[in-house]
Amino acid sequence: MGRIVVEVMPKPEILDPQGKAIRSGLERMGLNAFADVRQGKLFHLDVEGPVTEEALTAAREAAGTLLSNPVIEDVVAVRETTAEEAAQ
């Protein structure tokens, strides 16, 4: 079984209140190494058999139409998982 990963992030010009809340929480925990936090979405799309170019094309279409809101989000990546990711 193959897996495709789709990463979606808010566009840079869009406010990210969840990211700001996470950064604030990190600061309260004493974790001050981070200048900013942006929260996005990660999707795992499993396919029967190996990942094919056809499956990647379908995943790109789904990413641009259903998995993201193109007005406020960018699709950052659509890719096959690595062996290390698949083992997790």
Automatic annotation (TrEMBL):
Pathway participation: Purine metabolism; IMP biosynthesis via de novo pathway; 5-amino-1-(5-phospho-D-ribosyl)imidazole from N(2)-formyl-N(1)-(5-phospho-D-ribosyl)glycinamide: step 1/2
Name of protein: Phosphoribosylformylglycinamidine synthase subunit PurS
Assembly: Part of the FGAM synthase complex composed of 1 PurL, 1 PurQ and 2 PurS subunits.
InterPro entries assigned to the protein according to its UniProt record, in alphabetical order: PurS (IPR003850), PurS-like_sf (IPR036604)
Major localization listed first in the record, in broad terms: cytoplasm
Lineage top rank: taxon: Bacteria
Keywords: ATP-binding, Cytoplasm, Ligase, Nucleotide-binding, Purine biosynthesis
Pfam families, per database record: PurS
Family: Belongs to the PurS family.
Gene expressing this chain: purS
Reactions that this protein is recorded to catalyse: N(2)-formyl-N(1)-(5-phospho-beta-D-ribosyl)glycinamide + L-glutamine + ATP + H2O = 2-formamido-N(1)-(5-O-phospho-beta-D-ribosyl)acetamidine + L-glutamate + ADP + phosphate + H(+)
The protein's role, per its UniProt record: Part of the phosphoribosylformylglycinamidine synthase complex involved in the purines biosynthetic pathway. Catalyzes the ATP-dependent conversion of formylglycinamide ribonucleotide (FGAR) and glutamine to yield formylglycinamidine ribonucleotide (FGAM) and glutamate. The FGAM synthase complex is composed of three subunits. PurQ produces an ammonia molecule by converting glutamine to glutamate. PurL transfers the ammonia molecule to FGAR to form FGAM in an ATP-dependent manner.
EC number(s) per entry: 6.3.5.3
Location(s) in or outside the cell: Cytoplasm
Species of the source: Brevibacterium salitolerans
